[in-house]
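Priority: medium. Attachment 1 of 2:
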């Protein structure tokens, strides 16, 4: 089923009609522990408890653990809810997607990679309402969870939410750092999707639109947010999500996960630390180290298009432009300023930053030596 999406100020009001049209009676509400109140969703959705039987689940970590998913599935099954609503950031939406998926399929929590579509059943009506502008999780058919500090991803077409309600008013209470990191995540997703070996005309259209929206609005949405900037960033995040739904992400995301897991750097910020160096690295691809079937010339042309979208003429300028954007949004660009300053820290990131799927998606073959050089350069 193709997703239905509503993107506009006050679009959260569409929820009333959706629930009515689908004859919903029992709602399983997944939210963050504090964000649900901080973004005033508790006020905007007060009517939900008055009209429906609502079970709320928010007892899980910021980076959801598999054990959290299991508890959510148990609670969901006990209450026999007929609709799942996620209100929160990317982790909240991922948790809702996982609960809905595993509740409908007795795969066993360690068989999440089973891809036989004929044996996978669809879950209940799933409605995703993001409260940050960045993750794009409402637009993707995969969901992230952790076992300890190791990141995993479940993927299946039935995981995609049926409805996405993107209301930029819900992001207005975000602290500046979260706004900056979330918005940067959208930009990174869009750029990575654009250069991914799996990109196509459709994904590139989404990526380009996201990039065009982020560049003039990211800093504004952080330092002096207004309704227009918030709407632009909400749209950008959704388009970036639609892009990676086709291509998935690439090497910067893979390398970013241990930076978040071990050093508590916000996800979007962690990816942004790597992206400028990786852009330059990919732009220097040769026929000897190109990945994918389209050849080194195609990759160089693709990177040149990204450089032009950034308003620059060469790789050095593009890299500098991205780093300047981060600084203007209040994000540190040096690892040492974030407590990552030893050789052991660098090796820890390398050891845990080679997710095979993400690295294989990169248009230039990646080595540990290349990653070490990039990390040391920004140390």
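Attachment 2 of 2:
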């Amino acid at each position: 089923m193709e997703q239905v999406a509503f993107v506009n100020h006050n679009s959260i009001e569409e929820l009333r009609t959706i629930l009515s049209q689908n004859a919903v009676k029992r709602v399983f509400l997944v939210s963050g522990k504090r964000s649900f109140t901080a973004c005033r969703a508790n006020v905007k959705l007060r009517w939900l408890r008055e009209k429906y039987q609502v079970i709320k689940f928010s007892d899980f970590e910021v980076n959801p653990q598999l054990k959290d998913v299991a508890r959510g599935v148990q609670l969901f099954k006990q209450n026999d809810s007929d609709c799942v609503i996620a209100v929160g950031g990317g982790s909240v939406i991922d948790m809702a997607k996982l609960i809905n998926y595993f509740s409908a399929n007795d795969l066993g929590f360690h068989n999440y990679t089973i891809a036989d579509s004929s044996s996978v059943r669809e879950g209940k009506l799933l409605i995703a309402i993001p409260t940050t502008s960045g993750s794009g999780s409402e637009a993707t058919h995969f969901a992230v969870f952790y076992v300890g500090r190791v990141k995993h991803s479940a993927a299946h077409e039935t995981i995609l939410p049926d409805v996405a309600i993107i209301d930029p008013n819900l992001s207005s209470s975000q602290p500046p750092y979260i706004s900056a990191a979330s918005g940067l995540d959208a930009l990174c997703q869009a750029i990575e999707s654009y250069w991914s070996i799996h990109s196509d005309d459709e994904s590139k259209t989404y990526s380009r639109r996201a990039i065009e929206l982020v560049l003039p609005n990211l800093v504004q949405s952080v330092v002096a947010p207004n309704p227009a900037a918030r709407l632009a960033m909400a749209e950008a995040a959704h388009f970036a999500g639609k892009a990676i739904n086709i291509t998935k992400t690439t090497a910067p995301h893979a390398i970013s996960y241990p930076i978040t897991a071990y050093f508590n750097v916000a996800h979007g910020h962690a990816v942004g630390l790597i992206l400028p160096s990786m852009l330059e690295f990919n732009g220097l691809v040769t026929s000897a180290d190109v990945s994918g079937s389209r050849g080194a010339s195609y990759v160089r042309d693709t990177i040149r298009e990204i450089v032009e979208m950034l308003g620059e003429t060469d790789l050095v300028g593009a890299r500098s432009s991205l780093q300047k954007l981060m600084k203007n949004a209040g994000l540190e660009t040096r690892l040492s300023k974030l407590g990552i300053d030893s050789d052991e820290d660098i090796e820890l990131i390398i050891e845990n930053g080679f997710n095979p799927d993400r690295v294989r998606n990169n248009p230039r073959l990646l080595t540990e030596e290349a990653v070490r050089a990039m990390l040391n350069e920004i140390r």
